[in-house]
Prior knowledge:
Elements: H1 14-24, H2 47-59, H3 61-77, H4 85-94, H5 99-107, H6 112-124, E1 132-133, E2 141-142, H7 147-158, H8 166-169, E3 175-177, E4 180-182
Antiparallel strand pairs: 1-2, 3-4
Helix pairs in contact: 2-3, 2-5, 3-4, 4-5
Amino acid sequence: MLVPEDRADRTFTDYHRTHRHAAGVQDSDAPRFQIPPVGDRYPRSSLPALEAATWAREEHPERFASFDLALFEAFFGRTEDISDPRVLGRIGASAQLDPSALGEALRTARYRSMVFEEYLEAANQGIHGIPTILIPGQAPIVGAVPYADLRRAVERALGGSSAGSRKESGFDGPIIQEGTAFF
């Protein structure tokens, strides 16, 4: 999600804790999520991390997957402030990217317009949450959905069946759209 403004007042809430807990207990191979106390500092903005990820994707596509995973682990696994350019430089170095080149891309806002364009494109498609998985012919799947439910949705798409109504589709997992869960 794009949070472009720099807000020093952002903190972890019960909402954040609940979602991290739910995501972390889904499957035995679920990623490890650190669940910080309510009131701990939350990244001030998502813009620096999104700009850094766009830079990595555009300039070093062969390193993007490792950088993306490192960002995920830093934020969700260690609760690092991925709005801090120094933290992003260290994460970049861990993914074998040049931290000074990454810092320069952030200082010059080289990819900022691309981040905003991609955000607007997603919003225009009705995407308002992360992660969002789009499968042709089916409702968007938003949030930490169990792997088994995702697998069924992909198998249904590959088998050519349409997602019609939820009862017809056989999909019994949650589809979460704009903060509302449908079971």
